[in-house]
Amino acid sequence: MQQLWDQISSEAESAGLNCSHQSLRPQTVPDFLQTNMKSSRFLLALLPLLLPVLSAGSDCGPCDPAQCAPLPAEGCATGSIPDPCGCCSVCAAAEGEQCGGRRAAARRCGSGLECVRSKDDKKNKMGICLCKSGYEVCGTDGNSYKSGCALKSASLKAERDGKEPINVQNKGRCATAPIIVTPPGEVYLSCEAVGVPTPVLTWKKVLGGRRRMELLPGDRDNLAIQTRGGPEKHEVTGWVLISPLTKEEEGSYECHASNAKGEASAVGAIHLVESIDDIIIKKVTKDDEL
Fold first, then answer.
1. Per its UniProt entry, which superkingdom is the organism in (predicted)?
2. Domain coordinates of the chain in residue numbers?
3. Longest dimension (CA), the chain
4. Residue 95 gets which letter from DSSP?
5. CA 55, 56, 59, 60: dihedral to nearest 10 degrees?
Protein backbone atom coordinates (compact mmCIF):
# COMPACT_ATOMS: atom_id res chain seq x y z
CA MET A 1 0.00 0.00 0.00
CA GLN A 2 2.89 2.35 0.86
CA GLN A 3 4.49 1.62 -2.53
CA LEU A 4 1.26 2.55 -4.31
CA TRP A 5 1.07 5.80 -2.35
CA ASP A 6 4.68 6.64 -3.17
CA GLN A 7 3.94 6.01 -6.89
CA ILE A 8 0.95 8.35 -6.72
CA SER A 9 3.04 11.03 -5.00
CA SER A 10 5.78 10.72 -7.61
CA GLU A 11 3.30 11.05 -10.48
CA ALA A 12 1.66 14.03 -8.79
CA GLU A 13 4.99 15.83 -8.33
CA SER A 14 5.86 15.36 -11.99
CA ALA A 15 2.50 16.93 -12.82
CA GLY A 16 3.31 19.99 -10.63
CA LEU A 17 1.01 19.09 -7.75
CA ASN A 18 1.60 19.48 -4.01
CA CYS A 19 3.04 16.14 -2.90
CA SER A 20 2.51 16.43 0.86
CA HIS A 21 0.30 13.79 2.41
CA GLN A 22 -1.83 16.47 4.06
CA SER A 23 -2.55 18.34 0.84
CA LEU A 24 -2.99 15.26 -1.37
CA ARG A 25 -5.31 13.22 0.75
CA PRO A 26 -8.28 15.63 0.78
CA GLN A 27 -8.08 16.07 -3.00
CA THR A 28 -9.89 13.88 -5.49
CA VAL A 29 -8.16 10.91 -7.09
CA PRO A 30 -5.97 12.05 -10.03
CA ASP A 31 -7.29 11.54 -13.58
CA PHE A 32 -4.56 9.09 -14.53
CA LEU A 33 -5.52 6.86 -11.60
CA GLN A 34 -9.21 6.99 -12.56
CA THR A 35 -8.25 5.99 -16.12
CA ASN A 36 -6.23 3.03 -14.86
CA MET A 37 -9.08 1.94 -12.61
CA LYS A 38 -11.59 2.14 -15.50
CA SER A 39 -9.25 0.10 -17.71
CA SER A 40 -8.96 -2.54 -15.00
CA ARG A 41 -12.75 -2.79 -14.66
CA PHE A 42 -13.07 -3.08 -18.47
CA LEU A 43 -10.57 -5.94 -18.59
CA LEU A 44 -12.36 -7.72 -15.75
CA ALA A 45 -15.64 -7.43 -17.69
CA LEU A 46 -14.02 -8.90 -20.82
CA LEU A 47 -12.36 -11.77 -18.95
CA PRO A 48 -15.39 -14.16 -19.05
CA LEU A 49 -15.65 -13.63 -22.82
CA LEU A 50 -11.95 -14.18 -23.38
CA LEU A 51 -11.68 -17.36 -21.33
CA PRO A 52 -13.37 -19.70 -23.93
CA VAL A 53 -11.17 -18.29 -26.68
CA LEU A 54 -8.04 -18.67 -24.59
CA SER A 55 -9.00 -22.22 -23.55
CA ALA A 56 -9.68 -23.19 -27.20
CA GLY A 57 -6.43 -21.68 -28.27
CA SER A 58 -4.58 -23.70 -25.65
CA ASP A 59 -5.14 -26.82 -27.79
CA CYS A 60 -4.08 -25.10 -31.00
CA GLY A 61 -0.41 -25.13 -31.90
CA PRO A 62 1.32 -22.84 -34.39
CA CYS A 63 -0.57 -22.69 -37.70
CA ASP A 64 1.27 -24.42 -40.53
CA PRO A 65 -1.01 -24.83 -43.58
CA ALA A 66 1.44 -27.33 -45.04
CA GLN A 67 0.54 -29.72 -42.20
CA CYS A 68 -3.22 -29.54 -42.88
CA ALA A 69 -4.89 -32.75 -44.07
CA PRO A 70 -6.17 -32.41 -47.65
CA LEU A 71 -9.89 -32.31 -48.31
CA PRO A 72 -11.47 -35.37 -50.00
CA ALA A 73 -10.89 -35.56 -53.75
CA GLU A 74 -14.64 -35.84 -54.34
CA GLY A 75 -15.23 -32.73 -52.24
CA CYS A 76 -17.29 -32.16 -49.10
CA ALA A 77 -20.99 -33.02 -49.15
CA THR A 78 -21.92 -29.86 -47.24
CA GLY A 79 -18.96 -27.66 -48.12
CA SER A 80 -15.80 -26.81 -46.19
CA ILE A 81 -15.32 -24.52 -43.18
CA PRO A 82 -12.31 -23.37 -41.09
CA ASP A 83 -11.37 -25.68 -38.25
CA PRO A 84 -11.83 -24.49 -34.61
CA CYS A 85 -8.22 -23.21 -34.60
CA GLY A 86 -8.84 -21.15 -37.75
CA CYS A 87 -5.89 -22.71 -39.54
CA CYS A 88 -7.07 -25.54 -41.82
CA SER A 89 -10.15 -26.11 -44.00
CA VAL A 90 -12.21 -29.15 -42.99
CA CYS A 91 -15.46 -30.72 -44.21
CA ALA A 92 -18.52 -29.50 -42.34
CA ALA A 93 -20.62 -32.18 -40.68
CA ALA A 94 -23.45 -33.35 -42.94
CA GLU A 95 -27.06 -34.12 -42.02
CA GLY A 96 -27.22 -37.04 -39.59
CA GLU A 97 -23.53 -36.81 -38.68
CA GLN A 98 -22.13 -36.12 -35.22
CA CYS A 99 -21.34 -32.55 -34.20
CA GLY A 100 -20.29 -30.55 -31.16
CA GLY A 101 -17.42 -31.23 -28.79
CA ARG A 102 -14.90 -28.96 -27.13
CA ARG A 103 -11.88 -26.92 -28.13
CA ALA A 104 -9.83 -28.05 -31.11
CA ALA A 105 -11.82 -31.31 -31.45
CA ALA A 106 -15.15 -29.50 -31.95
CA ARG A 107 -17.03 -30.22 -35.18
CA ARG A 108 -19.51 -27.82 -36.74
CA CYS A 109 -22.48 -28.48 -39.03
CA GLY A 110 -22.69 -27.22 -42.59
CA SER A 111 -24.83 -24.36 -43.85
CA GLY A 112 -28.55 -24.77 -43.16
CA LEU A 113 -27.92 -27.38 -40.44
CA GLU A 114 -28.04 -27.09 -36.67
CA CYS A 115 -26.42 -29.22 -33.98
CA VAL A 116 -29.18 -30.77 -31.86
CA ARG A 117 -28.15 -32.31 -28.54
CA SER A 118 -30.05 -34.86 -26.49
CA LYS A 119 -32.41 -33.38 -23.90
CA ASP A 120 -32.09 -36.50 -21.74
CA ASP A 121 -28.28 -36.48 -21.47
CA LYS A 122 -27.36 -32.86 -20.78
CA LYS A 123 -23.76 -33.75 -19.87
CA ASN A 124 -23.10 -35.04 -23.37
CA LYS A 125 -21.61 -32.22 -25.44
CA MET A 126 -22.06 -34.08 -28.73
CA GLY A 127 -25.13 -33.82 -30.94
CA ILE A 128 -26.48 -34.65 -34.40
CA CYS A 129 -26.70 -32.28 -37.37
CA LEU A 130 -30.32 -31.76 -38.41
CA CYS A 131 -31.74 -29.61 -41.16
CA LYS A 132 -33.37 -26.37 -40.04
CA SER A 133 -36.02 -26.72 -42.78
CA GLY A 134 -37.65 -30.13 -42.50
CA TYR A 135 -40.06 -29.82 -45.42
CA GLU A 136 -39.76 -31.17 -48.96
CA VAL A 137 -38.62 -28.84 -51.73
CA CYS A 138 -38.63 -28.95 -55.52
CA GLY A 139 -35.32 -28.23 -57.25
CA THR A 140 -34.74 -26.44 -60.53
CA ASP A 141 -33.50 -29.77 -61.89
CA GLY A 142 -37.05 -31.16 -61.65
CA ASN A 143 -36.31 -33.49 -58.73
CA SER A 144 -37.94 -33.48 -55.29
CA TYR A 145 -35.75 -33.38 -52.17
CA LYS A 146 -36.71 -34.28 -48.60
CA SER A 147 -35.25 -30.99 -47.32
CA GLY A 148 -33.41 -27.87 -48.40
CA CYS A 149 -30.22 -29.38 -46.99
CA ALA A 150 -30.50 -32.42 -49.27
CA LEU A 151 -30.96 -30.06 -52.22
CA LYS A 152 -27.88 -28.05 -51.21
CA SER A 153 -25.77 -31.22 -51.05
CA ALA A 154 -26.99 -32.21 -54.52
CA SER A 155 -26.21 -28.71 -55.79
CA LEU A 156 -22.63 -28.83 -54.47
CA LYS A 157 -22.11 -32.21 -56.14
CA ALA A 158 -23.52 -30.88 -59.42
CA GLU A 159 -21.11 -27.94 -59.32
CA ARG A 160 -18.17 -30.26 -58.64
CA ASP A 161 -19.21 -32.25 -61.71
CA GLY A 162 -19.24 -29.09 -63.81
CA LYS A 163 -23.03 -28.81 -63.94
CA GLU A 164 -25.36 -25.94 -63.13
CA PRO A 165 -26.15 -25.38 -59.43
CA ILE A 166 -29.57 -26.49 -58.19
CA ASN A 167 -31.84 -23.92 -56.58
CA VAL A 168 -35.19 -24.19 -54.79
CA GLN A 169 -38.02 -23.80 -57.29
CA ASN A 170 -40.87 -24.17 -54.79
CA LYS A 171 -41.75 -25.69 -51.46
CA GLY A 172 -43.25 -29.16 -51.58
CA ARG A 173 -42.74 -31.88 -54.16
CA CYS A 174 -42.31 -31.15 -57.85
CA ALA A 175 -45.33 -31.48 -60.12
CA THR A 176 -45.23 -34.81 -61.96
CA ALA A 177 -47.40 -36.84 -64.29
CA PRO A 178 -49.43 -39.68 -62.73
CA ILE A 179 -47.57 -42.92 -62.00
CA ILE A 180 -49.31 -46.26 -61.45
CA VAL A 181 -47.96 -47.47 -58.11
CA THR A 182 -50.00 -50.69 -57.93
CA PRO A 183 -51.31 -51.96 -61.27
CA PRO A 184 -54.62 -53.83 -61.42
CA GLY A 185 -54.39 -57.58 -61.24
CA GLU A 186 -56.39 -58.72 -58.25
CA VAL A 187 -60.08 -59.01 -57.47
CA TYR A 188 -61.91 -59.50 -54.20
CA LEU A 189 -65.48 -60.30 -53.25
CA SER A 190 -66.88 -59.18 -49.90
CA CYS A 191 -69.87 -60.33 -47.91
CA GLU A 192 -71.43 -59.24 -44.59
CA ALA A 193 -73.90 -61.18 -42.46
CA VAL A 194 -75.58 -60.47 -39.11
CA GLY A 195 -77.35 -62.79 -36.68
CA VAL A 196 -77.64 -63.89 -33.06
CA PRO A 197 -75.55 -65.83 -32.33
CA THR A 198 -72.96 -64.39 -34.72
CA PRO A 199 -73.06 -66.47 -37.91
CA VAL A 200 -70.20 -68.38 -39.52
CA LEU A 201 -69.26 -67.44 -43.10
CA THR A 202 -68.07 -69.84 -45.79
CA TRP A 203 -67.38 -69.35 -49.50
CA LYS A 204 -68.12 -71.70 -52.36
CA LYS A 205 -67.68 -71.50 -56.10
CA VAL A 206 -70.74 -72.47 -58.11
CA LEU A 207 -70.05 -75.17 -60.69
CA GLY A 208 -72.50 -76.17 -63.42
CA GLY A 209 -75.49 -73.95 -62.60
CA ARG A 210 -75.64 -74.42 -58.78
CA ARG A 211 -75.66 -78.18 -59.12
CA ARG A 212 -72.19 -78.55 -57.64
CA MET A 213 -70.30 -76.40 -55.16
CA GLU A 214 -66.57 -76.17 -54.57
CA LEU A 215 -65.64 -75.19 -51.01
CA LEU A 216 -63.03 -72.44 -51.05
CA PRO A 217 -60.12 -71.92 -50.90
CA GLY A 218 -59.42 -75.56 -51.77
CA ASP A 219 -55.95 -76.10 -53.24
CA ARG A 220 -55.84 -72.81 -55.19
CA ASP A 221 -52.60 -70.89 -54.55
CA ASN A 222 -53.94 -67.64 -56.04
CA LEU A 223 -57.04 -67.48 -53.83
CA ALA A 224 -57.34 -66.55 -50.15
CA ILE A 225 -60.27 -66.42 -47.73
CA GLN A 226 -60.38 -63.92 -44.86
CA THR A 227 -63.04 -63.43 -42.18
CA ARG A 228 -63.33 -61.01 -39.27
CA GLY A 229 -65.98 -59.91 -36.81
CA GLY A 230 -67.87 -56.64 -37.26
CA PRO A 231 -68.14 -53.90 -38.09
CA GLU A 232 -71.28 -54.06 -35.92
CA LYS A 233 -72.13 -56.30 -33.00
CA HIS A 234 -73.17 -59.86 -33.99
CA GLU A 235 -71.95 -59.11 -37.54
CA VAL A 236 -69.27 -60.92 -39.54
CA THR A 237 -67.48 -59.88 -42.76
CA GLY A 238 -65.70 -62.17 -45.20
CA TRP A 239 -63.61 -61.73 -48.34
CA VAL A 240 -62.41 -63.81 -51.26
CA LEU A 241 -59.13 -62.41 -52.62
CA ILE A 242 -57.97 -63.58 -56.06
CA SER A 243 -54.48 -62.63 -57.23
CA PRO A 244 -53.55 -62.98 -59.98
CA LEU A 245 -56.89 -63.19 -61.71
CA THR A 246 -57.07 -65.74 -64.55
CA LYS A 247 -59.78 -67.04 -66.86
CA GLU A 248 -60.32 -70.02 -64.54
CA GLU A 249 -61.60 -67.74 -61.77
CA GLU A 250 -64.50 -66.50 -63.91
CA GLY A 251 -67.87 -67.59 -62.56
CA SER A 252 -70.25 -67.29 -59.61
CA TYR A 253 -69.30 -67.36 -55.93
CA GLU A 254 -71.66 -68.04 -53.05
CA CYS A 255 -71.35 -66.47 -49.62
CA HIS A 256 -73.02 -68.75 -47.05
CA ALA A 257 -73.87 -67.69 -43.48
CA SER A 258 -75.20 -70.03 -40.81
CA ASN A 259 -75.83 -70.23 -37.06
CA ALA A 260 -77.96 -72.29 -34.70
CA LYS A 261 -81.10 -70.47 -35.83
CA GLY A 262 -80.74 -70.95 -39.57
CA GLU A 263 -78.76 -70.05 -42.68
CA ALA A 264 -78.66 -67.57 -45.58
CA SER A 265 -76.68 -67.17 -48.79
CA ALA A 266 -75.98 -64.74 -51.63
CA VAL A 267 -74.18 -65.08 -54.96
CA GLY A 268 -71.72 -62.74 -56.68
CA ALA A 269 -70.21 -63.18 -60.15
CA ILE A 270 -66.89 -62.42 -61.85
CA HIS A 271 -66.94 -61.87 -65.61
CA LEU A 272 -63.67 -61.48 -67.54
CA VAL A 273 -63.35 -59.52 -70.80
CA GLU A 274 -60.46 -59.19 -73.23
CA SER A 275 -60.67 -55.40 -73.48
CA ILE A 276 -62.51 -52.50 -71.93
CA ASP A 277 -64.70 -52.26 -75.04
CA ASP A 278 -66.26 -55.63 -74.15
CA ILE A 279 -67.74 -54.29 -70.91
CA ILE A 280 -71.51 -54.05 -71.17
CA ILE A 281 -72.74 -50.79 -69.68
CA LYS A 282 -76.33 -50.91 -68.54
CA LYS A 283 -78.22 -47.70 -69.16
CA VAL A 284 -80.16 -46.61 -66.11
CA THR A 285 -83.68 -45.45 -66.92
CA LYS A 286 -86.07 -43.50 -64.76
CA ASP A 287 -88.00 -46.71 -64.08
CA ASP A 288 -84.80 -48.34 -62.75
CA GLU A 289 -84.16 -45.37 -60.48
CA LEU A 290 -87.68 -45.64 -59.08
1. Eukaryota
2. 73-131, 137-171, 187-273
3. 137
4. T
5. -130
The answer for residues whose C-beta is within 8 angstroms of residue 149's C-beta and 6 or more apart is: 78, 95, 110, 112, 113, 131, 132, 133
Euclidean distance between CA atoms 151 and 169, whole angstroms: 11
Residue range 212-260, pLDDT digits in tens = 888 898 888 888 999 999 888 899 999 999 888 888 888 899 999 999 9
Domain 73-131 classified CATH 4.10.40.20? yes
Class of domain 187-273: mainly beta
Signed CA dihedral, 146, 149, 155, 159: sign only: negative
For residue 251, give the 3-state DSSP assignment: strand
Question: What whole-number distance in Å separates Cα of residue 27 and Cα of residue 61?
Answer: 51
- Is 191:183 a contact under the CB 8 Å cutoff? no
User: pTM of whole model > 0.85?
Assistant: no
SS3 244: coil
Q: Which amino acid is at 262?
A: G
